């Protein structure tokens, strides 16, 4: 875009300009001879619309204003730094063109004060100066000036520097628009996250309600449960129920994966072990006389395997330890389905692991499930637990394993069941170095006390 320079003539005797002569004004604009007036030049695709010109010389203000107005800018004048600050407090400008040397508040002080104002957007600041030393330029940049223009002002250079400022403002405003979009998107994501988090909190409450009782005294045995998901919800399930007048059934289940899908499957599985409705309990069957009796533990595992593969058709599988305790004899029958080995904790502080591994439920249709048997002595504890205990890692990545779990149990064997659960979690946290546990923790602890029948 080319702007034809126009010389200035002064004939208004009622308002003479005393600051500079006509020849000096023409030199200020870079014009040697008067030329015909050029038509206004419209600025296209330039974010600079409003310009504030600050100069203590009225003549120089008029010269700059005349040139900028012909280029299509909306120009406002200020004769002092204080007047400029007052205007800037009330109106918005895209660019400020200020003389450096002014009485009172100079251009440097004006720039520093202006940069302290709370503004909605960035404003480009150009200092007019005859200073050429690098120290002065550095001083101007330090207080917030964006560019400098040497006096006398060359109109072509003025236009070029304003256009350069316009490009900076365009990028700044484009960045602001993108930041607003990012902020708006993040706000929407946060709102969705908050809604999901509220739903997960409710889901956690519902899952915890699946374990309605965490302790029950059956006279000859005490049962305690622990369920601690690593997130809002988890894939572990523990429970117990009366399987007859002198029989206690208990189980520990660990569904593959974590999160909502695993939690939904645990809720479905919990319904198959109903404590209050024998007709809806997969471990019980009606005998010839009409009373309910226990199904063998390996048959229970087989029925669950069929349900998961044929009816539920879930992509998940689960491991399980399911067992019965005869309250009169201490005899235990159980089926291990890929779950960690059971722990037998004696009154002499001896820890023994019991189990043969077995096949997880829900992997293959023709899986075979076995039955294991043992007998508890008075005072002994039988513990079913999930692999969140033995697979807990320290800072080096080493797992706790069965040996580490045995050490924790021996160290805390004198504690009650509930206190022992707390000690287990505390020692796991110490072992992991305070890291967030990467898996759910669940445990069933049965203490056999036939003398209390």
TrEMBL record:
Keyword annotations of the record: Hydrolase, Phosphoprotein
Positions bearing 4-aspartylphosphate: 99
Pfam families on file: Response_reg, SpoIIE
UniProt domain Response regulatory: residue ranges: 50-166
Any one GO MF annotation of this record: phosphatase activity
Keyword Phosphoprotein attributed: yes
UniProt keyword Hydrolase, yes or no: yes
Superkingdom classification of source: Bacteria
Parts forming coiled coils: none
GO biological process: phosphorelay signal transduction system
Record InterPro entries: Bact_Sigma-Reg, CheY-like_superfamily, PPM-type-like_dom_sf, PPM-type_phosphatase-like_dom, Sig_transdc_resp-reg_receiver
Protein name, as recorded: Sigma-B regulation protein RsbU (Phosphoserine phosphatase)
Source species of the chain: Aliiroseovarius sediminilitoris
Source species taxonomy: Bacteria, Pseudomonadati, Pseudomonadota, Alphaproteobacteria, Rhodobacterales
